[in-house]
Amino acid sequence: MLEVVFNDSEKGSLIVAKNYDERNMQQGIIGHIGEEPTETERKEHFQGQAIGGKSEDVVNIGFSLDVGKISGAIDGEERQNVFRNLWSHFNFDHKEQEHFFQNQRKDMEKLLNAAKNNIPIRIWKSDAPYSICGFYFVCYILRDIDCEISVVSLPEKKVFKDAIVVYNSWAEVEAGRFYQFLPFEKQLSQMEKKMHSGYWQRLIEENAPLRAIINGEVISVPEDFYDFIIQSNLPEDDFILGRFIGKLLGEYNLGISDSWYALRMNKMIEDNKLVVVNSKNLSHPYEKVLRKI
């Protein structure tokens, strides 16, 4: 079976989940915050089961398809420029960028080969915009291939024996707990695949710079769609960019990335709505100290 997720963090978690070993995970503890956990607490935290299969059978169709125009080739120059724009505040060199794009192409080839060779495909989907857009895209590229697809949709909340947990994406799910979501797995019918493919075709035609989830539906929106959230939360005093973005991510469950917030705030700096007054660490862009103008 080929497992499909929609960003690198999710891929890493699912790879661990494929062959999860509770004992090895406990032995891997190297630190803690606050009081040292008891042996019982350690065991409870790392309780889990493997979902089985091989690590190489996990692919990331992580094209961040909620961001940027989508009418061209999925890994073409226009889409690559979307990533370069998102990465603009980090020091990713050309080699690192090309390695990322190569991995994307390899995972895409794995997905297409699995579909054509009738290998079952299981998609792990959440309500985050990048995930739903990725799901629609997969349905679109597989629309004419007769293949077996199942979907595990991340529930709004999951009740465990010790807690009720709200997850925003699969990247937040502990590797040892993935198996507990398998009862949510459902087969995707050919009719459903065609329907979701049609949604993506509509979004391609609209070709907006950004897509957001509104009332459970993916909607094409302008690139400044989330700016009001930034502007309405700007403090009167000086603030550190990274802490401010962390506050937005914690308070607004929108499934958008820290990179998008940073990109839009850099645009506000260019437009003289914010000013850089200092930097706590010149090597890290999130350490900028900003002030509202």
TrEMBL record:
It comes from the Bacteria. Residues 55-153 form the DUF1835 domain. InterPro entries: DUF1835, DUF3658. Residues 182-280 form the DUF3658 domain. This is DUF1835 domain-containing protein.
